[in-house]
Amino acid sequence: REEERGMSERGGIGGADLFGYVGIESVLDQMRRKTVKAGFEFNIMVVGQSGLGKSTLVNTLFKSKVSRKSCTPNYEEKISKTVRLHAVSHVIEEKGVKMKLTVIDTPGFGDQINNQNCWEPIVKYVNEQYEKYLREELNVNRKRRIPDSRVHCCIYFLPASGHSLRPIDVEFMKRLGKIVSIVPVIAKADTLTLEERQEFKERIRQDLEANGIHVYPQRELDEDPEDRILNDRIRDSIPFAVVGTDKEHQVNGHKVLGRKTKWGIIEVENVAHCEFANLRDLLIRSHLQDLKDVAHNVHYETYRVRRLNESNMNLSELVLSSWPLQNKMDKCETESHL
Ligand SMILES: Nc1nc2c(ncn2[C@@H]2O[C@H](COP(=O)(O)OP(=O)(O)OP(=O)(O)O)[C@@H](O)[C@H]2O)c(=O)[nH]1
Ligand SMILES: [Mg+2]
Question: Which residues lie below 8 Å from residue 241, measured CB to CB, with a gap of 6+?
Answer without folding.
Answer: 160, 185, 186, 189, 192, 197, 200, 201, 274, 275
